[in-house]
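Schema walk-through. Below, the input block comes first and the output block second. Nothing else is stored per chain. Lengths vary across the set, and this one has 482 residues.
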Amino acid sequence: MNKRHVLWSAFAATLALAACGGGSDSAETTSPSPTPAAPAIDRIEPLDTATKLLAASQAAPAASRLPAGAAVPRVALGALAGAKTVPQADKGVALKIGEGRAVAATASPAELSARLRWSKLEGGAQVAALAFAAEGAQAIRLGVLVRQLPDGAVLRFYGASGSPVVEMSAAELQALRQRNEAGGLAGDDARMVWGPDTDGAVSTLEVQLPAGADAGQLQLAVPRLSHLTRTVKDAAEIGDAASCNLDVMCSADLQTESRSVAKMLFTEADGTYMCTGTLLNDTRGSRTPYFLTANHCISTQAVASTLVTYWFFRAASCNGSPEVDPAMARVTGGAQLLYSDSSVDATLLRLNSQPPANVVYAGSYFGDGAVTGVGVAGVHHPRGDLQKYSVGTITGYANCGDTSCSSASVDGGNMFQIGWTRGTTEGGSSGSAIFASAGGSALYVVGSLTGGSASCENPNGVDLYGRFNRAFYRGASTWLTQ
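--- output ---
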């Protein structure tokens, strides 16, 4: 994990900003102040799929095929050693919500195969399952090493009774391995697959083989799992964000941008993390799911392949927490790493699965009009909470290394300094976009959050955002202008 610890003190408390306030009970007008109109070539327009619907088939929900009463052996892990993971508030690092754990009992294909108990299905298919229990876990992700899987085979993941079942076919797993190899991974690193987050302290891996397949040829292992100390979508976890954060559902002007922003879940060997990302449109309006976040969140193909996104993770109505928007949707399948640059703390991904209906592919602005004094608005998931927003102004420029930041000129700075007039950001907001007007009514992505000193306790602190135009011309344009 690239944990970018930045010393923000050089920017502390120099801006005369109003203290952050809470949301109101009615919709608010929060548009950033407009900048002068720029040539159309300096931007990519947003694409709202709610107004450009395409016919799509609805696949039936995945379901377990395990016969009633079938044996499901269990691998049990005790409670986490040491203190429970507490999500940290730092914005310069991804928000950690789980711990990685080795699973010695299924570390090799031979050990896992020895535990499976196969049942015959009508038509000749075979199915078996293995449960993994981690005492005290609120949710679990299983790390599955897929060395060999017969054509037509299916893996299924599920947690507590009644929870959704996520299915991955042999063809999908092969495609994921090929993307990993194209991203520079090799051997078992390319064959490692992280299942979805499943609720509860028990997660089940189900394997189905087609008729005629030899179970002896199956080579699967579960050498690791991630023990999540909080769930991602449970209402009991909602409300963690500090009190001055503003409910995005109370902003009349940011509903379009809200539908382009997703909460991110991703896993490394040492644990599971959260950040925020934004869906971007390209010049062709192709609906290719390009996704912008921070380099300090995801910077390698191995981590990109573990990505799960949560869309419309917001209140059902203005200040309606803890009720979640019924449109909330989880998308699994990982992503392909296209571009990542630590100097602007930006990463561009292409999701392997399409986002849900009614999302917005955000527009982006890469001209020179985003300068000191321009108003901006951010949409993000502080501490992994329901979606919030912030309103502020570009106040200057900076450059950041691994341990410090320094002020810079408009020409030399890779980062925007942002002062908030309302709202703030927190851990979990990392990677989220700021939007600005470029003339007209549309808002465009102009930066992504790297970190900062702003908080409810320090409303005059400064946050830093990587300048999108720098990321665009350094490599992101290769993909967004195809």
